[in-house]
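thought: user wants a sequence for this fold. calling inverse folding tool.
action: design(structure=
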């Protein structure tokens, strides 16, 4: 079910999500599931549901080998770090007609706090700036706050310290945390 929710996973993410202590044991579990899984190597091996796997668990979303897999993998680090929230949803549409709609990589709620997750793997900073500006415009409408009491906290995960600092500056005025992949290793 974790692959249904998270699209792509590495073996170490599977271990952490399911509490599997050894890589050897995790490989054994994956071997037993091989009829339902597909994988490819992009530095690490990435696993995802094949057609039989999707049919078996009722997953409608088709995933294939893609260059975007690393984007999903780093997004999943936030899911794991925040305790695998039950409320986690991928690719949620936000915004209004006036501000324009945009897709956040993931959304979740812990207690009464809402979070929007953005994964920055190879995105141009100009694109990140546009997305942050959309969040700011959306916050100014007050629509989310009216319905939920407060605007969601924005969580970014990126690849380098330099990119972290750039994102922090761009997010000025928003409640925001920026992590690097190294923060979770």
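)
observation: tool returned 185 residues.
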């Amino acid at each position: 079910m974790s692959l249904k929710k998270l699209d792509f996973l590495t073996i170490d993410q599977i271990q952490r999500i399911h509490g599997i202590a050894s890589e050897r044991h995790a490989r054994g579990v994956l071997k037993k599931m091989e009829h339902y899984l597909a994988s490819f190597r992009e530095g690490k091996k990435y696993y995802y549901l094949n057609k039989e796997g999707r049919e078996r668990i009722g997953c409608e979303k088709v995933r294939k080998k893609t260059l975007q897999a690393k984007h999903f993998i780093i997004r999943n680090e936030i899911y794991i770090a925040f305790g695998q929230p039950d409320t986690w949803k991928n690719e949620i549409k936000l915004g209004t007609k006036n501000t324009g709609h945009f897709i956040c990589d993931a959304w979740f709620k812990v207690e009464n706090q809402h979070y929007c997750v953005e994964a920055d793997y190879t995105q141009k900073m100009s694109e990140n700036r546009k997305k942050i500006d959309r969040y700011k415009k959306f916050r100014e409408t007050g629509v989310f706050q009216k319905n939920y009491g407060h605007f969601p906290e924005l969580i970014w995960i990126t690849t380098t310290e330099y990119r972290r600092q750039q994102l922090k500056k761009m997010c000025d005025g928003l409640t925001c945390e920026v992590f690097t992949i190294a923060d979770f290793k």
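thought: summarizing for user.
answer: Here is the designed sequence. Helices lie at 2-6, 11-18, 23-32, 51-57, 69-81, 125-141, 143-148, 161-170.
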